[in-house]
Amino acid sequence: MRHGGLAALVVGLVVAGSARASAAEGAGPIAVIVGTRSAVERVSNDDLRELYLRRRRVWPNGVPAIPVNLPASHPVRERFSTVVLGRATQDLLSYWNARYFEGITPPIVLPSPAAVRAYVAVEPGAIGYVPLTDVDGTCRTLLVLNR
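Given the sequence above, the corresponding structure tokens read:
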């Protein structure tokens, strides 16, 4: 299953009931997550940087890697971008504009941590991040970012 189908249905259902993020959400630890069916067992900060800048687009087992972002205005995304990518979310606009002309698209964006969890739960190649307090049994935590 690619970016559509069941994943889109699940995300759509979750989005319908999701609430806006609060500033407090961005202050705690961030969990980097995959679905329980994902073959990915571990990921480093360097791996995340390569995946989220789309320099690496396939997992070692050959499955396409699908990095998932929260919206640019979400405080958890801002912290993730700063900690993992070393740049503020706004500073990445010129990077993605340049990649566009190379045919490389940015990671998909989902509106809430609940939507990210729902997507990675049904898409084996997906990886995302949510506040650690939002992790549930539908996903596995690969890494916790505390900074």
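The radius of gyration is 14 Å. Try to locate this feature in the token string yourself.
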